[in-house]
Amino acid sequence: MKTQGKKYKAPLRRLSYQRTLTICLFLAIPMVLLILFTYLPFGDMLHYSTLKWNGFSEPEFIGLDNYKTLFSNPQYFSVFKTSIYYFIGSLIQIALALYLATILYYPLKCKNFFKGVLFFPYMLNGVAIGFVFLYFFKPDGALDSLLMLLGMPEESLPLWLGNPSLVNISLTFASVWRYMGQNMVMFVGAIQSINSEYFEAAQIDGASRWQQFRYIILPSIRYIISLNMILAIKGAISVYEIPFVMTKGSGGSMTFVIKTLQTAFTDKKIGLASAMGVVLLVIIMIITAIQKVLIEGKEEK
Amino acid sequence: MKIRNKSQLIYYVIQYLILGILTFITIAPLVLVFFASFKTNKELLTTGVLTLPENWFNFENYITAWTKGNMATGFFNTILILVASITATILTGTMTAYVLSRFEFRMKGLVKFLFLTASLIPSITMQMSTFQIIVGLGLYNTRWATIILFAGTDIISIYIFLQFLDNISYSLDEAAIMDGCSFPRIFFRIIMPLLKPAVVTVIIIKGIGFYNEFYTPYLYMKDKELQVISTSLYAFQGPYGTQWEIICAACVITMLPALVVFLLLQKHIYSGLTAGAVKG
Lengths: 301, 280
Fold this sequence. Notes:
The structure holds two protein chains of two kinds. By secondary structure, chain A is mainly α.
């Protein structure tokens, strides 16, 4: 962060009191909100994870039993399999976004139209997107009709959301549809901030578009690509909104977060759900640590 | 750019082909929902999904969705919560950034650390304990539950404000101090007006997020009178589960404000997202 390296000059005596008061006054509400809704729930969650509790009854301390239940019962961890679909989906999404951001950098007809359309889904309400894709994937729905138009026989069309081996692919598609444009716009921003002299020099030297991408764009926006990769992993692990609205996690589309929320608010097992929350948090912390070491460490050099 | 040879021509054709296909994939699901929203129930059952509606002025479904689906209440609550929580988050964000930018004090490192670390914790995983706090504060099933959860600030907003604050000359502040101006007065009279572009950026990012937020209002505001636009739309799935024409109309109603905002503020939205991403 660039600063001017200069704060208010050593305060005059009469300002010292006012200065302290201002700092306290201005930080009071932001800090109370931060502690009340981030750090207190975090502490509580650690505490709850050692309890057997339905939220109303007298809580009973059971030590690490909730964690034992979690780790000895494959049904809780097996839902992470679903994350693999979303992770592969987001890799495709990043690759697509990168390609589109690159061609949007160069002269192109209807550039703003393409950029706008491809970005627009990001603006939309998640519940509306859920319904749009329920309509899209339903039997005899939009996708089936489009495929039949292309000559696919009706009998060969599967149940996009009813088939356990397809449901996650369908949901991942909806998710990529929703977020690809956001990645694209970020990459466009990053590419535009590259010094344009590099491109001019490369073009004079007769470098092809691919060479320009490989040797100018890719190295320059490496950091933001890695950042988006990490965000993709985190997103894949904590996905919930689209599957929650579309399938509620049924038929093989259960995700870890939906499972946690169900354990807490449907099964009323606050203790077990808290343990799941802690596990998820630990996984995310580990990924963040890897990000710090791998990406930001390299960036320093 | 001039096309010099055959391989370049193929490259251009492929490029536009890919763009065309992706544009089609993006638009098609939305357009087909738009079609369905103008069809009668009978028409929807008898005609294919790809057929155009017979009557483009059939607003029956919109009227049903709007009146029976509680959408007026949904918009009312959404706007109320949006205005209140955006005002709050802008104030908490700018005030935090102002203090961090203009003062040296002992706990400064700790404050920064707490905001930075908070951004690593996905709040969705802590809802079971947040829920107890909201209930404990007596805010469950009130609009305040959502407002207060949105009111805090986050590291990305703080970074956006800090970037602007660092470019506002200290001599302005110092001149004001010499004139006997108090710090809060400097903040509201001098800093705030100069921060306007950053404030607009944060309003846009937060506004899109809050308008689309589903789980927080879903969990904390169960009353029908408290529904926001997301939750009133979500409620369609039970009673209207098979009446796709009504659901589609409700979806269009929900998405229309997003389209209008996007068309009006396109440039701001792009730069807002990029500003948030670079530091985030």
